[in-house]
Amino acid sequence: MRDEQGRAVGIAAGYSWAGIAELTLMWVDGAYRGLGHGRKLLDAFIAEAAARGSLRIWVSTHDFQAPGLYERAGFERMAELPGWPEGHSNIILCKTIQRVPRRPYPAAASAPDGFPAKRA
Fold it and tell me: What is the pLDDT, as a whole number, of residue 24?
């Protein structure tokens, strides 16, 4: 995200791989915070992940950063790790953006012990 002079004032960065996307960095310049730019960046990241065919987006944030921003955008808390950093928590969130496609064929039958059934 750039201002009128072309200076970077916000960024969302990450990757997609194996049906998932991970938002690894999001930053908005202090002078531009509280104006909805973080949500615009997040929405753009979600749209790009969906266009790449990602099923889910994962993000890690801290309790003193913006977990509420992600939760308002439909992310669910999957884990909270206290003491990372000391006195705070690292929060892992996930948003499902596409449902896992159904298999075009039924799954193989299993024997009662959980192993695939032997064919006669």
Answer: 98
